[in-house]
Design goal:
By secondary structure, the chain is of the alpha+beta class. The protein is 66% helix and 9% strand. The chain has 24 helices and 9 strands. Strands 5-6-4-7-3-2-8-1-9 form a 9-stranded mixed sheet, sandwiched between helices. α9 packs antiparallel against α10 (229-262). The relative contact order is 0.12.
Length: 661
């Protein structure tokens, strides 16, 4: 009989807490699909044994097990409290605690099994999407097929066993110790706030606002002031701690502040403040810790998504900065590049190619200025030693390369010199160049004045190429007595070069002093960064967001009977349905978006502190990036966040309105 009752109750829970079940299904779907990616032989063959992605995904999955375990434990205890009178009735009928505990644990396991089966089906199909993304990133052909992995299947099963096993053990222990009296009164129990005194709560609220402001200021100090590495770490840690503490303080004190506002007659009777304030304060008064925890999860979501987008954008930027689809270089022109020319003419006849030299005077006036002290505390270099000297290019070659890359035509004065540099360095290098004239071949009577600086993708951020972040453009006659530092052969193809074509170039025999790079290689290297960091961060962000949104939704739908009575009273007092719907919309807006506000502010501050000052190139060099790009990524983060969060909010609103109005 109890088994039959368990099945009935399990199906009823699936209907009553559909959002919870769907969150579990989506979580298992993601978990299983990423496990399939980790154990896929096809993906392993492409990535190679050096990829960190499998280890990172396994680590992220363990973190997710802990988060989902806490979610399942929280929802299970919540359901137990709501059904405590039912269990108390069972106990009065003579059913023992052990049997009740086993029955409730069986219901939880049924929900877990349902989520596992549905997640395995969904994960099998979602894996195809992930694999297609991976193959596209790596410029490899994608073949759809039914992939089965016993390792992924078993690992997902072990994780779910840990999630539901630990939760079931905890609730079983609680049920075994509970009495009938406790069960009959348990559904009326509320979360106990750590701070009870209203005056202290209001003071705590003001302190939390100050802590949030101070935390943001400390993190901003990392962007706009000179802070050493040791002090910078301490400042960053202190800023992060202040933001986290401010979130908890905000939700501990906010109910008291709202109640204080309701005591003010003028504010209370303005518009719908009285009704909305009473409904909302009654809901959140005993949810301080829950809302604070949800807000912290939202902060982590903002960080994970924004950092994932940041890494993805950095990969795209580096591919763009490479400029040429392929480039072969010989240091000091010591080795011949004819084998590459012959291969390209034979295999890639449609490619537009160019051959030229980079020169050096042996001096490093601009290189000396382009240093950590002048360009910013985060600057560093890792290019070949020869590139530390000032690099020069003929004007005729520069015009040819700009035309090859489809850049805007420029007029170059033969009595001036110019500079092509990375955008972040233009302002300071241009200021320095205006005070520097160049002598042509050491002749004091022939001086070149600075004519201007250009920016744009120009192959300046690799270990060889057109200078290290900057290049001086001079008349052809000015390089007659300079040393050739590099001989380069570059090409641009009508469509993106495939990895197969690039591997053909790699097969060309070359000496130790000859280098080869290209967009396919850069993209493949960057794809490993995306898969090792961006994919797991998005994976983690979705689980955090789904868990937090599920808690919010279950809480707001938990007291529908009480809410129905409140809105019925409003109707009896003369409030029409349209007015009640307006109040309901405002209630949901405040309830769902209140935890987002401190999380968004804190997450934006932490993100900008991490990425607003620095950008890592492929060879550990660091370059400053623009504030605008960081804000753009934050905007995309908000779009991703709300596109998912609003689904939970809308589904809860429709269910609530149907049940209450």
């Amino acid at each position: 009989m109890l088994k039959k009752l368990s099945r009935r109750n399990a199906f009823r829970q699936m209907q009553d807490y559909m959002v919870y079940l769907l969150t579990l299904i989506l979580s298992v779907t993601l978990m299983y699909s990423f496990h399939l990616l980790v154990f896929s032989e096809e993906v392993k063959a492409v990535l190679g044994s050096w990829s960190m992605m499998p280890f990172i995904i396994i680590f992220i999955s363990i973190v997710i097990v802990l988060i989902l375990g806490r979610l399942v434990s929280y929802i299970t205890e919540f359901i137990f409290r709501k059904r405590s009178r039912e269990f108390g009735t069972y106990m009065m009928l003579g059913i023992e605690n052990r049997e009740i505990a086993e029955m409730f644990a069986r219901e939880s396991r049924m929900i877990g099994v349902a989520a596992w089966i549905a997640g395995l089906v969904g994960g099998t199909y979602f894996y195809q999407i992930l694999k297609a993304m991976v193959m596209r990133l790596l410029l490899r052909p994608f073949h759809m097929g039914l992939d089965v992995s016993w390792e992924a299947f078993c690992l997902t099963g072990v994780y779910l066993f840990c999630i539901f096993g630990l939760s079931g053990k905890k609730i079983k222990k609680k049920v075994m110790a509970v009495s009938i009296r406790e069960l009959l009164s348990m559904d009326a129990e509320n979360e106990k706030a750590p701070v009870q005194n209203k005056k202290r709560k209001r003071i705590l609220f003001l302190l939390s606002i100050s802590a949030l402001f101070l935390g943001c200021v400390l993190l901003a100090a990392l962007l706009f002031s000179e802070v050493g590495n040791d002090a910078g770490g301490a400042v960053a840690l202190l800023g992060l701690v202040m933001i986290v503490l401010s979130v908890f303080g905000f939700f501990m004190g906010f109910p008291a502040v709202l109640e204080q506002r309701l005591d003010r007659v003028k504010w209370k009777y303005r518009g719908r403040n009285l009704v909305l304030g009473r409904i909302f304060s009654g809901k959140i008064r005993n949810l301080s810790l829950t809302l604070a925890s949800v807000s912290i999860l939202f902060l982590l979501v903002f960080l994970a998504v924004s950092l994932g987008l940041f890494f993805n954008r950095r990969v795209d930027s580096r591919v763009e900065e490479t400029a040429f689809d392929f480039a072969a270089g010989s240091l000091y022109g010591q080795e011949d590049l004819i084998p590459f020319k012959e291969y390209v003419q034979s295999k890639l006849p449609e490619a537009v190619t160019g051959e030229y030299q980079i020169y050096t005077s042996g001096e490093r006036d601009f290189g000396r200025y382009f240093s950590t002290e002048n360009m910013g505390k985060f600057m560093g270099f890792s290019h070949m030693d020869a590139m530390d000297n000032d690099c020069y290019m003929k004007m005729s070659v520069y015009e040819q390369l700009r035309d090859m890359l489809g850049m805007e035509k420029v007029h170059l004065d033969q009595d001036s010199y110019y500079m092509h540099c990375s955008g972040f360095a233009k302002e300071k290098l241009e200021r320095y160049a205006k005070s520097r004239n160049l002598e042509v071949n050491g002749k004091e009577d022939e001086i070149l004045s600075f004519g201007g600086a250009f920016t744009g993708a120009f192959f300046q951020q690799e270990f060889f190429g057109n200078g290290s972040y900057y290049l001086l453009i001079v008349p052809d006659r000015a390089v007659e007595h300079m040393q050739v530092i590099e001989e380069l052969y570059v090409g641009v193809t009508p469509k993106e070069l495939s990895m197969e074509d690039y591997e053909g170039l790699l097969s060309v025999e070359r000496g130790d002093r000859t280098y080869l790079t290209g967009k396919p290689e850069i993209r493949e290297t960057g794809a490993s960064v995306v898969m090792s960091f961006s994919f797991p961060l998005f994976y983690l962000a979705f689980i955090f967001l789904a868990a937090a949104a599920t808690i919010m939704t279950v809480q707001i739908l938990s007291d529908l009977e009480q809410e129905r009575r409140q809105f019925a009273i409003l109707g009896e007092c003369g409030m029409d349905q349209s007015e009640q719907r307006r109040i309901l919309r405002r209630y949901f807006a405040v309830y769902y978006f209140l935890p987002v506000l401190p999380a968004a502010l804190g997450g934006a501050a932490v993100y900008m502190a991490i990425t607003g000052s620095i950008n890592w190139d492929a060879y550990q060099g660091m370059t400053l990036i623009g504030f605008g790009e960081g804000m753009g990524i934050l905007g995309m983060t908000a779009g991703v966040f709300f596109s998912i969060y609003l689904i939970y909010c809308l589904s809860a609103y429709l269910s609530f309105k149907k049940a209450v109005l």
